[in-house]
TrEMBL record:
One of its GO terms (biological process) is carbohydrate metabolic process. InterPro entries: 6-hairpin_glycosidase_sf (IPR008928), 6hp_glycosidase-like_sf (IPR012341), Glyco_hydro_88 (IPR010905), PolySaccharide_Degr_Enz (IPR052043). One of its GO terms (molecular function) is hydrolase activity. Residues 1-19 form the signal peptide. It comes from the Bacteria. It comes from Draconibacterium sediminis. This is Glycosyl hydrolase family 88. Keywords: Hydrolase, Signal. Gene3D superfamilies: 1.50.10.10. The keyword Signal applies. The keyword Hydrolase applies. Pfam families: Glyco_hydro_88.
Length: 368
């Protein structure tokens, strides 16, 4: 009887373990639900309904980064067409501010559409603007209170927004000038904001030396921006180059730290070192971490034995925060620091992060 009881327990544990490993089919179903819900509600803003985001603003630019990854695996050309229509409507222009990294984000979508359709018009305005920036580089300092500091990458979010555009442009044009500019600016920001002891980035200079409940302040989504940006940059570079090795070193340091500070529930706290003070789930930063870690395993950079379980745990947590109608909940509103999130509030960049995560978790569990 005792033997039979142990067998039942072991079977039950195996069933639970199996249930926690999603199938490629399950992952695509969840991604489709979230993508379709977001497109249906695209003109709405859940942080501030009275002020919806411009289609070219960074909020939507981050959505498109994930939507491109979903479109590539969706077996449905309508997602590509949806993004293509946006580009055509705005004549393939970047957003308003010439130097500001946020307003470059949509360029990532343009370059992916160019790769699919081969129409040079899709990237010509980006090339023209980036050439101007290179030949008229911003002279401002990275210090947060100096004038025009955001004409450079003076806050960590910027490392997701603009550098991957430069890396992609380098890849599609073979013009090394784009890579060199990106390297110089990325290094400057990293030297300024990266905490070598914690292997995490401060959001900007104003958080360096500040404490929250006695812990250093490393914003969850801020570091999510960086980590996802690193994966998207590495994807464009030749692994044999010194540039690739530079980014890889930072990526590995962050990856190691991230699995050390993952919450028992599977997400990451809004203040990465302050789990007990920020127990509320947050799905945008956590989805970016999930994407970056899964990408590393899939590309043979991270050891699956060490990193796969944290990725699966994180993905299952993200899926558990999707509402019945397909909305990804617990996305922290627009901000610059740890804050609050709610189960019934979302944001487009959270959807983009989730779709990015799904695209790599799908491969990790055998999806083709």
């Amino acid at each position: 009887m005792r033997h039979l009881f142990l067998v039942i327990i072991l079977i039950s544990l195996n069933i639970v373990a199996f249930a926690q490993t999603p199938t490629p089919k399950n992952i695509k179903e969840e991604m489709k639900r979230v993508a379709d819900w977001q497109i249906e509600h695209f003109d709405q803003c859940y942080s501030n309904p009275k002020n919806p985001h411009h289609p070219l603003a960074w909020h939507n630019g981050a959505l498109y980064v994930g939507m491109v990854k979903w479109a590539a695996m969706a077996d449905d050309n309508s997602y590509w067409e949806w993004m293509k229509n946006i580009g055509e409507k705005y004549n393939w222009q970047l957003h308003e501010r010439k130097y500001h990294a946020d307003d470059h984000t949509v360029g990532q979508m343009y370059i992916e559409l160019y790769r699919k359709y081969g129409d040079k018009e899709m990237i010509t305005p980006t090339i023209k603007q980036f050439d101007y920036i290179m030949y008229h580089p911003a002279q401002s300092k990275l210090n947060w209170k100096t004038p025009y500091n955001q004409d450079r990458w003076s806050w960590c979010d910027a490392l997701f927004m603009s550098p991957p555009v430069w890396a992609k442009l380098y890849k599609v044009t073979s013009e090394k000038k784009y890579l060199q500019f990106m390297m110089d600016e990325f290094k400057a920001t990293t030297d300024f904001l990266f905490d070598k002891k914690e292997s995490l980035y401060y959001r900007d200079e104003s958080y360096i030396g500040e404490l929250d409940h006695g812990t250093k302040i490393f914003w969850g989504r801020g570091n999510g921006w960086v980590f996802a940006g690193l994966a998207n940059i590495l994807e464009e570079l030749d692994p044999s180059t010194k540039e690739y090795k530079y980014f890889l070193k930072i990526y590995k340091k962050m990856a190691k730290r991230l699995i050390e500070i993952q919450t028992p529930q599977g997400h990451w706290a809004m203040s990465l070192l302050g789990q007990e003070f920020y127990p509320t789930p947050e799905t945008s930063g956590s989805s970016f971490f999930t994407f970056g870690l899964a990408w590393g395993i899939n590309n043979g950079i991270l050891d699956a034995e060490t990193y796969k379980d944290p990725v699966m745990k994180a993905w299952n947590a993200m899926v558990s925060y999707i509402t019945d109608d397909g909305m990804l909940g617990y996305v922290q509103p627009v901000g610059a620091a740890p804050g609050k999130a709610w189960p019934d509030k979302t944001e487009v960049y959270g959807t983009g992060a989730f779709l990015s995560a799904g695209s790599e978790v799908y491969k990790l569990v055998g999806g083709k």
